[in-house]
Write a structure and sequence with these properties.
- The protein is globular.
- The protein has a two-stranded antiparallel sheet.
- The chain is mainly alpha-helical.
- The chain has 7 helices and 2 strands; from the N terminus they run H-H-H-H-H-E-E-H-H.
- Helices cover about 80% and strands about 0% of the residues.
- Helix 1 packs across helix 4, helix 3 (about 40-50) packs across helix 4 (about 60-100) and helix 6 (about 140-155) runs antiparallel to helix 7 (about 160-175).
- It has helices at about 1-15, 25-35, 40-50, 60-100, 105-135, 140-155, 160-175, and strands at about 135, 140.
- A hairpin with a 2-residue loop joins strand 1 and strand 2 (about 140).
Length: about 180
């Protein structure tokens, strides 16, 4: 029971402070991994790959995954509820207040400050994922780097559906034995 309460609490904090969506949860997940030992940085990287190739938001998928790893189905439900509870409460409050203050300079300033914070959290998460993906200690994982560059260029030069890139990357991982 205490583990379920802690899962709820930890993911409630993530949900409360990860402004900017699912990717903004990643720095919090990396920190939680170090602090709790419930999962590893590699688990977070795998979670991102799974979340990007399955339906649903990254944050919810992450909470469900970590909750399940930690305490089975009950952990998955409790962690997910912990993550989404702050958003539900905040959205209800904001929806009630925002209509009255839609043209407020203060509200505009608040959102102007939150956007760079969200960008920084997402960029930080991207750097952590890149480090975990492209490096093992001080050794560069060249096949992953090449695949990453190819996919980056492809996303800029084509307008294919994201599933095409995911399928291509999964196939390349199998064909070139990129797992280790």
């Amino acid at each position: 029971m205490l583990l379920l309460l802690r899962l709820f609490y930890e993911f409630f904090k993530v949900g409360l402070f990860s402004v900017g969506g699912g990717l903004a949860t990643l720095p919090f997940l990396y920190e939680m991994a170090e602090r709790t030992g419930w999962f590893t940085h590699t688990d977070v990287t795998n979670l991102i790959a799974i979340s990007e190739s399955t339906p649903g938001p990254i944050g919810v998928n992450a909470a469900t995954y970590v909750g399940f790893l930690t305490d089975g189905l009950a952990g998955a439900v409790v962690a997910t509820l912990g993550l989404i509870a702050p958003a539900i409460v905040i959205i209800i409050l904001v929806a009630q207040v925002l209509e009255r203050f839609r043209d407020s300079r203060l509200v505009d300033n608040i959102f102007s400050g939150l956007r760079p914070a969200s960008t920084a959290l997402i960029a930080s998460a991207g750097l952590l994922v890149a480090k975990t993906t492209f490096l093992v200690g001080l050794t560069i994982r060249w096949p992953q780097v090449v695949l990453g560059v190819v996919l980056l260029v492809a996303t800029q030069k084509t307008d294919w559906h994201p599933v095409v890139y995911i399928a291509f990357a999964a196939a390349a991982g199998v064909i070139f034995h990129m797992g280790g």
